[in-house]
What we know:
By secondary structure, chain A is of the alpha+beta class. Helix content of chain A is 27%, strand content 37%. Chain B has helices at 2-9, 23-44, 60-75, 89-92, 114-117, 122-137, 142-151, 160-165, 183-192, and strands at residues 50-55, 79-84, 155-159, 178-181, 195-198.
Amino acid sequence: MSSEYHTAETLDVKGLSCPMPIVKTKQTVDGLEIGDVLEVVATDSGSTSDIQGWAEGTDGVELLEQIEDGQRYVHYVEKTA
Amino acid sequence: MSTDNRATTTDDGTADAAPEFAPAELQALRERVDELEASLIDGTDDGGKKMTIVATQGSFDMAYPPLILASTAAAFGWDVVVFHTFWGLDILHEEKSKGLKLSAVGNPNMPVPNALAAMPGMDRMATRMMERKIDENGTATIEELIDLSLEQGVDLQACQMTIELMDYDEDDFYDGVTTGVGAATALQHMAESDVQLLV
């Protein structure tokens, strides 16, 4: 996946459906350093709205960008605190 | 005359405000304000949200909503309690949770009429079909969701009264499940929660 972010880690949740993309994103973010960007690659079409809701409702994370690439939904999340 | 006197007494600067509160009364008020401020800090904790779900159903399909909501809320950093009672207890029962069934009878979403759905083996067949769909869809299993919830600090509680009613043993439940709790504990959590759900 090409992107302008320096991603510290990529999380592959292809083939998984709700709530796994969110739960795994949260668990992966927990292990990152502040300032790190996580790339989440999903196939669940609900993940776009779910990641938005999660990022808005959760302290210390910021959703930078979401890209829809055919059957793949790629989300960039920064750990801010 | 008397009204004039009243107006002039304020000129010395003390008559108006001072006599309304005795020093002891003021002190008591100050202490009360401190107390309330402290309780406000206690009450809000870290500002995180709380959710309590009461899970009463133990069929295969009804096990999912509380577990999905609980694990997702935990991902939001919420403090989550799921209080399992009556058939909901089977979700936490290590052996029974692996054999939860979908009921074919009385389920208008089933592609077969009730008369057929009541035949022996239909529940098992309906459950198998659903399990296969869940696997194909990449949906987590009940066991996976329980593990995930516990891992993330969700408090999965098994109602003590129902444990005894169903002749279950505390050791029958997954490690990490809270036992020895009742309706009062559940109510206490509900009263403190931002979200309360009955499933």
